[in-house]
Structures are given as structure tokens and as C-alpha cells.
Amino acid sequence: MRIEDKIIFNEIKQGNKEVYKALFDDYYEHLVTFAKSFLFDQQESENLVQDLFVFLWENASKVKIETSVKAYFYQAVRNRCLNYIKGLKVRDKNHLMYMDGMLQTDDEVEYFDPQIMVDIKTSINELPEQMAKVFTMKMIDGETRESIAQELGVSVNTVKTQLQRAKKKLREKLLDKTNLLFFL
Amino acid sequence: MKQSNIDIELIRKKALGELTPEEKKAYNEWLGKKETHKLYANKAEYYFSHNKVVNEQPADFEKAWLRILPRLVHKPKLRIPRWVGAAASIAVIALVSYTTFLLVKTSHDQPVVVQNATNIQAGSKTAELQLSNGQVVRLGSGDMVLQETDGTTINTASSEVSYANNVVDNETVLYNTIRLNKGEEFTLTLADGTRVWINSMSELKFPVQFQGDTRRVELVYGEVSFDVAHNAEKPFILKTPVHDVEVLGTRFNVSCYANDGTVQTTLAEGKVRINNVIGQLESIEIEPDQQYVFDKKDLTASVKDVNAEAYLAWTKGRFQFEDENLESIFKKLERWYNVDVYFVNNQARQEYFNGRLPRFENIDVILDMIEEVSDVEIELKDNAVILK
After folding, report:
1. What distance in Å separates the CA atoms of residue B147 and residue B133, rounded to the nearest whole number?
2. Which residue, A78, A95, A83, is CA-closest to A35?
3. A85, A158, B166, B335: which could form a disulfide with B200 (CB 3.0–4.6 Å)?
């Protein structure tokens, strides 16, 4: 567990509402976007993420963070979503919604399951060169848009557009791939 | 047993029209099982064909945060400063003058008269007002006349702000927000003449003119007391994070703090109806000297008989406690004085008291009074109050 995460979590355990609010500001939107890929509903997704935040406040001392706060958040939202759809007798066997959700958020995808990561990397290689480069730098290496723009000698706007296109393409590719898997 | 779950992939393929006859059968079987399945399938279909959700909108942080805030009721673990263990005792406080305030421990009725001293000062009559254009004005320093963009005149005095009942031609309703920090209180007169007392750590959002057939204001968090101007044609509705309070003309108090487990609505005069309660369909009316208590954790509610004046006493410059325990009393003091309270002696939380305390005295006076009649020892160091 990273030291910053440890500090953050300790503060929340002590009831530090400012730190908690900062965490909320950082993650709320991303997590809602992520949840929408499972629930297909804005309000339900917001409710689910809000419930998670309340749970975290009340149970901070019991919550075990294994890798990072971020990984915890995505995993927790995913579990809650899977529970929700389980109630509707639906499952996500091939992690279709999981991948989709990850690609929809603006966050780095460093916390994919290892197997899914392999799939993503293969698909990245099928993207046009610059698009693949931008995507890798942002989503895998976690660089900022600004530093990518500087390194590649393009504008920040270009980076943004490339990222969006890359995500869209990748998503289509991945979805097709699971399609194939599904047939096998 | 037959596996009745279907994979999300089937739903996606259905949306794209790619189901094989066999899959179609499984899909339809699932779909027909429950109404909720159909609802979910419709939303999924929309998502896969439009690449966004049916009710897509940008996540509203502010609103989400305000929905979370009243639900944060857990008590953070005690964090006792290192120096508490040290045997340091507080210097004897100079005794200055007598006050007429009394505090009585519920179990015995020896009234105690206590003395004045100086140290941490009481709160003040100040606030912050946010106009409809986002501009923020500090209130409490003196007279000012402000004007809203629809022509409404806002008069501010040293402890009060009031909205004139101007005739405005503006179609859109403008909202102002009054916000109070720890140690602040303020009085507000709305455009219809309704008077509002606002306690520390509160936020109230209200229209600068009431238009339409209801008068609606919103308590975002905190504590407010209302003296509602009578107007049977236009019901007055106070919205809180957990329910609405509908009134016709009345005096009542609502307390809704993040670190309290309940939201309390206390009626002094008239009649109020509690509507739109989270998790409940029925509305309920309460009578004068009754209190509606909503439990934020269980989402349950109850009505109890109280002396309403005790709950409105803060609007008259005093604290008044009716069989209230130290934990609750100190939560109120903490909001008013710039102090943090620590209970080293956990039993002390559950000592009950009746009585009145002055609101505009320094904290030493208050702590002395409590110490005199209780079994606890109170230590004040810097801004920490420690109960042993």
C-alpha cells in the first residue's frame, strides 16, 4: 500500500471529513461513469457510489486496502454492481461490462485483471501508431496530457482527441473480442 | 437445477440484433420473468445503441455531497491529545460577577449559582450571504443595502438581514444562500415577512421573492427556527435532506446536523406536516410541544412530547436543556464555541441535566456551571475541553 494512501486512510479512520471530501471529489465522477456500464442508469449509479462512500465513512476501520485506494474503489464499485445485476439474474462472465466501464472513465487502467490487461495490450497494438502511443502513455503509464503533448510535440487538444478516439476504437475491438470468446 | 442467469452479452447482442434462435429463447425466458428485467433490458438497449445511459447527465458533485453529508453519522474514534495524560491542572479562574443562570442535574435539584470569568469567547452574530450571481457578502458588521438583479432590496443590519417584498417582473426565481460557520448565528426576514433564526454551522437556501402557489426554502444542513408569516393560500414548505416540513403559520425549530444521528423538528405553535420522508410514504402532522425525530441511520421516525421552548431557547440568547445528556449538550457547545470536546470518561456522556445556560458568556462560565453540578472534572487547554 502506498504511503499516501496509508495517510489518507488513517485520516478517514480518525474522522477527518476534509480528507474524505477530497477523496470524494477525486473519485465520485469516475466511479459513477464506471458504474453506469453495469447499471445503464445515471441515478442508480450515483446512488450506488454514494452508498459506497457512506459505507467507507462508517467502516473505515474495518476496510482493508490491499494495493491502493484507487484499486479498492473500483473493486468495491464493481462488486456492488455485480451484486446489483445478480439480483436481476444477469452476470458478467467475460468481464465485458468491467472493461467497458474502465475504458469509459478518464482514469488510468492500471488495475485491470492481468488477463484483461493482456487483451488490452494486444488491442492497443492494433491501433494507429500515434493513437496507441498516446493511449499507452496516458492510460498505462499514467502521464498527464500536458507531458504527453510536450513529449510528442503536439497540442494538448490533439492528445485529448487522440485519447478519445483510441478509447472508442479499443472499446469496439475489445467488445468484438469478447463476442468471439462468447462463441467459442 | 437449471441455470437461470443470463450473461450480459446476450443483452448486448439483443440490442444489436445478433441473437441466435437459441439465445433468443434464453433471453425471452429471462425477460418475461420479472418487470424489473424488462426495465433493465430497456436501459441496456438504449445504452448499447446510443452509447450513453437513458437519463445521462453530468454527475452533480455538490448535490451528491449534500446527499452524503447528512448520512455521515458515525462517530470518529476518540483521538486524545498527548498532553491529556499530564497532570497539569487548570489555573484557578478569577471570579468576577454573579449570573442568574441555573443548571440542575436531573437526579438532584440543588440549584447552583456560578460566576463569571473570561477566556474563550462565545460566538457572534455574523454570517455569509451568497447572492444569486454567486457574489458573497459578509454580514454582521453594519448596515448595508444590497439589490438583487430582479430588483429585490436586501437590507442588512448588525444581526439581521431582511428581504423587501418588492414587486418584481422577473419570471425566473432567484435564490440566495445564507451560510454560518462554527460560532455564528444570524436572523433573516424573508420577503413574505417570515422570520428565521439560523444557528451555527448551518446553510439555508431561499428565493428572494416567493412566486407560485407555495413558499419553499431549503435547509441544506444545520439548525433553524421559523416564525412563519400566516398565508393560508400559500403553504410554507421547508425542505431538509430527509423530509419536508409543511406549515400554514407557525413557530418551529428544525435541527439537522451531520454529526447528530437524528433530525428533530419541534413545534411551538400552530401545526406542521412532515412530508416526503425518506423511505416512508405517509406524512404525519404534529401538535405544539411535540417533536418529530427522524433517525438517519435506521430511516425510522417517532413523535415525542417535549417542552418546545427549550428547543427554541437559542433564538433568545440562551441554551436550555430538558433532560439532555452531556454528550448532546457538548455537541451544542462545540458548535458555538471554538473548542473541541473529548470525553475521557465515557460514562460522563450519559449524565442528564435540566437547566439553562447563558449563550453569550465565555466558555469558562459555562464549564464551571456544568462542573459544579456534575460528577465530571472538566479541563480546558487551548481549544480542547476534556471531560474526565
Report:
1. 11
2. A78
3. B335
pLDDT at position B3: 55
Q: Tell me the average pLDDT of chain A.
A: 79
Number of Cβ within 10 Å of residue B160's Cβ equals 17
Tell if the CB–CB gap between B57 and A42 is shorter than 8 Å.
yes
Architecture in CATH of A1-90: Orthogonal Bundle (1.10)
Q: Contact B243/B263 with Cβ under 8 angstroms? A: yes
Of the listed ranges A43-57, A102-116, B145-159, B326-340, the least confidently predicted one is A102-116
Residue type, B241: P
Q: What does pLDDT average to over chain B?
A: 81
CATH code assigned to B127-312: 2.60.120.1440
According to DSSP H, which parts of chain B are helical? 8-15, 21-33, 35-50, 61-68, 308-312, 326-336, 363-373
Grid coordinates representing A110?
Answer: 492500471
Residue A61 is placed in which grid cell? 476501520
Where residue B76 falls among pLDDT bands split at 50, 70, 90?
Answer: very low
Are both B89-108+316-387 and B127-312 of the same fold?
A: no
pLDDT, position A45: 95
- Residues B89-108+316-387, CATH architecture: 3-Layer(bab) Sandwich (3.55)
Searching chain A, which residue's CA lies closest to the CA of residue B72?
Answer: A54
Q: Residues 2-31, chain B: which have Cβ within 8 Å of A?
A: 4-9, 11-13, 30
- Amino acid at site B164: A
pLDDT attached to residue B188: 95
Domain ranges of chain B: 8-50, 89-108+316-387, 127-312
Select from B255, B244, B221 the least CA-distant residue to A17: B221
- Burial degree of B284 (CB within 10 A; 0-12, 13-18, 19+): middle
Give span(s): CATH 1.10.10.10, chain A: 92-184
Could you give the angle at which helices A69-86 and A3-13 cross, rounded to 10 degrees? 60
Most A-contacting residue of B1, B2, B9 (CB-CB within 10 A), to test interface: B9
ipTM: 0.74
CATH 1.10.1740.10 domain span(s) along chain A:
1-90
- Read off the pLDDT of residues A127-173 as tens digits, 9 standing for 90 and up: 778 888 887 787 667 677 888 888 888 888 888 888 878 777 777 77
- Cβ(B205)–Cβ(B179) under 8 Å? no
Q: What's the CATH fold of domain A92-184?
A: Arc Repressor Mutant, subunit A (1.10.10)
Q: Which residue has the cell 403559520?
A: B249
pLDDT one-digit tens code per residue, B88-144: 222 222 222 223 344 554 443 333 333 334 467 888 889 999 998 888 889 988 788
Looking at residue B353, what is its pLDDT?
A: 80
What integer pLDDT is reported at residue A177 of this predicted model? 58
Residue A51 host element (H or E): helix A42-59
